[in-house]
Amino acid sequence: MIYIKAILVRYFGNPQDRTAMFNAASLVIDAFIGIGKLILGLYLLSGWFITNALYYLILCIAKGQVLHKYTLAKKVSSAQQRYSMELYVYKRGGVFLCLLGVSYLLVCLRIYLVGDALVYEGYIVYLVALIAFTKLGFAIHGNIVNRHLKNPIISTLK
Questions:
Q1: DSSP per residue, 60-122
Q2: How much is the CA Rg of the chain, to the nearest whole Å?
Q3: Residues ≥6 apart with Cβ < 8 Å to 97
Q4: How many other β-carbons are positioned within 10 Å of the β-carbon of residue 45?
């Protein structure tokens, strides 16, 4: 019991560690959402669901790599070296997100222009909207709460 209390004090005491820990939990949830969308896309034979699932899963891999770099950066003793490592992750993450966003835009644009988009009815529409709005709400909340943290890796996670 004392060991769990020490872990909670360690992670909840430092705002950057707390943010990283919540992002690790978010990574697991996003992976399940991505796998669920992939299964749904394969079941419905929907290119959009499959593309969206792959987008989520690629973001999960990227978030996992950033979290790994965060743990490595915490072990670096030199503040200058740590900051340069964090800034490199920040810049690389920004370029990656831009490329991923442009590729996602192109896929969605192709689906729209070709006209092979399917119209879904029933509860599936509400489920997709619920997931999208929930994720958007958590993203906005995370950015507002963590805007004072000046760590480039934490900014990359957000």
A1: HHHHHHHHHHHHHHHH---HHHHHHHHHHHHHHHHHHHHHHHHHHHHHHHHHHHHT-PPPP-T
A2: 18
A3: 62
A4: 9
Q: Tell me: the pLDDT tens digits for 70-119?
A: 888 888 788 788 888 888 888 888 888 888 888 878 877 877 788 766 66
Report which of 158, 105, 155 is spatially closest to residue 135, judged by C-alpha positions.
158
Burial class (CB in 10 A: 0-12, 13-18, 19+), 1: exposed
| Distance, CA of 33 to CA of 37 (rounded, Å) | 6
Cα-Cα-Cα-Cα torsion 14, 20, 23, 24, nearest 10 degrees, comes to: -120
CA–CA gap between residue 50 and residue 156 (Å, rounded):
25
Helix axes 15-44, 47-75, angle to 10 degrees: 160
